[in-house]
Amino acid sequence: MAAAGVNIPTNRRGTKARPSRRARAHSLTPYLFVAPAVLVLGVVFAYAVVRLLEQSISSPGLMGETEYGLQNFSAVLSDPLFHSAVLNNLRLFLAVPVLTVIAVLLAALLFERVRGWRFYSSVIFVPYVLAVTVVGIIFSYILQRHGLLNQVLSSLHLSSLTRDWLGDSGLAIWSIWAVVVWQQLGFGVVLFLARLSSIDVTLYEAATLDRAGWWQIFRHITVPHLAPVIEFFVTISLINMLSWIFNYVYVMTGGGPVRSTYVLELLIYQTAFRDGLPNLAAALSVVVLAFAVVLLSVQSVLRHRIERMEG
User: Fold this and answer.
1) What three-state secondary structure class fits 103?
2) How far is the C-alpha of 87 from the C-alpha of 142, rounded, in Å?
3) What is the pLDDT of residues 193-213, one digit of tens each?
4) What mean pLDDT is predicted for residues 115-144?
5) Is residue 40, in this structure, part of any structural domain at all?
């Protein structure tokens, strides 16, 4: 039954009329505009992925013929250096919850419009726009045995805290971890501030009139409204820790000391270009791609749940 005031076109038999050919063509117009870009991206990425998969399962045989199988994956998964690289990537994953919590708290504090909040937000965001190689080189000098950090600690009579931050195999990966958090923090703060700026201020005013404290407002208003952005930020950060950490490691430690800071990206690079084993590098790349697909799948599930909660 049609709602009052709504005219639904019907034919002579009283049934709903089908949309005209012109109406159907008009509904397809946006897709036609997007189709060329989608086609180009699809061909480029599809071809690259197919070639990667083909190379990952192929290897040169003894008679010069190409052999196909899972021997490359078997060699990769049994390599102790691969296990060390995966463990280091997992350690870097631990930076994501720390990064997210600090960014959300700072964004909530800056959203209170404290005096000089624009200056503070700019200072926090500046490291993010710096080139990773520049940041890596600067911190490689700061964190070395006789670097600036140890000199400051010594001048403060805290010589017992001085360490070889990048030369100690137990500390090197955590030093890189701290540098990554320092540089990536600005992106999260600005992202969360942008989301908070779109929230209806009457919600905060009503909570204030109800004598809600800062923590109650933060927990029941700020965090729920930030949930979709937090989910996006966490997913992007996890992917970055998996496939964007190469520059930090390559510039700051080169994988050392004693290969203690190898990550999957660096292992792929060394396998392909230093060792001259592109097939093994392709197998490693497929493993990284599988990890990324898993992360994106989890992100999709979380997004659907958040959308249901908002609905």
Assistant:
1) helix
2) 26
3) 989 888 888 888 888 888 888
4) 89
5) no
Element (H, E) at 163: none
Q: SS3 helix, strand, coil % of the chain, rounded to 5?
A: 70, 5, 25
- Is residue 163 one of the residues assigned to a domain? yes
Q: DSSP secondary structure string, 243-269?
A: HS-HHHHHHHTTT-STTTT--HHHHHH
Beta carbons within 10 angstroms of residue 166's beta carbon: 23
CATH number, domain of 186, equals 1.10.3720.10
C-alpha span between 92 and 117 (Å, rounded): 30
Residue 135 lies in a domain: yes
The pLDDT value recorded for residue 2 is 46
Predicted pLDDT at 305: 78
Per-residue pLDDT of 55-106, as tens digits, reads 898 887 666 677 788 888 999 999 999 999 999 999 999 999 999 999 999 9
pTM: 0.81
5-14 tens-digit pLDDT: 445 455 555 5
Whole-number Cα distances in Å, 16 to 1, 7, 11, 25, 27? 11, 11, 6, 19, 18
Contact 188, 100 (CB under 8 A): yes
pLDDT in tens, 15-66: 555 556 666 656 777 788 888 888 888 888 888 888 889 889 888 766 667 7
Rounded CA-CA distance 10/17 in Å is: 5
Environment class of 75 (CB within 10 Å of its CB; exposed 0-12, middle 13-18, buried 19+): middle
* Other CB atoms within 10 Å distance of the CB of residue 292: 14
Structural domains counted in the chain? 1
Phi, psi of 164 (to 5 degrees): -90, 85
Tokens encoding 213: 């404290």
The answer to whether residue 147 is domain-embedded is: yes
Q: Which residue has the tokens 């996006």?
A: 232
Total residues found in the chain within this entry: 311
Token pair of 289, please?
Answer: 């791609």
295 lies in which domain range?
A: 81-310
Rounded distance, CA 90 to CA 295, Å?
A: 13
What's the pLDDT at 58? 87
